[in-house]
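Dear Dr. K.,

Following up on our conversation at the group meeting, I've run the structure prediction for Ejaculatory bulb-specific protein 3 from Sipha flava. I'm pasting the input sequence below exactly as I used it, so you can double-check it against your construct before we proceed with anything downstream. Let me know if the numbering doesn't match what you have in your notebook.
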Amino acid sequence: MIKFLAAVVCCAVLLPIISTRAALIKYTLKYDNIDLDEILNNDRLITNYFKCLVDEGKCTQEGEELKKWLPDAIETKCEGCSEKQKQGAEKVIKFLIQKRSDIWKQLEEKYDPQGTYRQRYSKLLETMKN
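The predicted structure tokens came back this morning:
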């Protein structure tokens, strides 16, 4: 009986913590193992993803997923992202700012036309320029 009560207490204490963490990650994890370096070092792939995001080309399944969740991720500071997704987002943003500023500017125009998020993330973006 004591073991049963201990198990119930553990479930009562741990379940809300586990389910809260699971609820925080709301974007799919199935693309977390994509090789970002392969994409970033391939002009054709970058261009295809870019065209997808700005409604100028077809989207892959991954591109559709990114396009679907990107506005929410920007607005919520990636609250629903896993750690791997946050690290990947920073890597991509840094790459675009440093090496493909033409694409970065167009994405900013599309996803932040008023400059609201640019202002919110200004310190972070400044560190990525170096």
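Two things stood out to me. Residues 2-24 form the longest helix (23 residues). The mean pLDDT is 79.

Best regards,
J.T.
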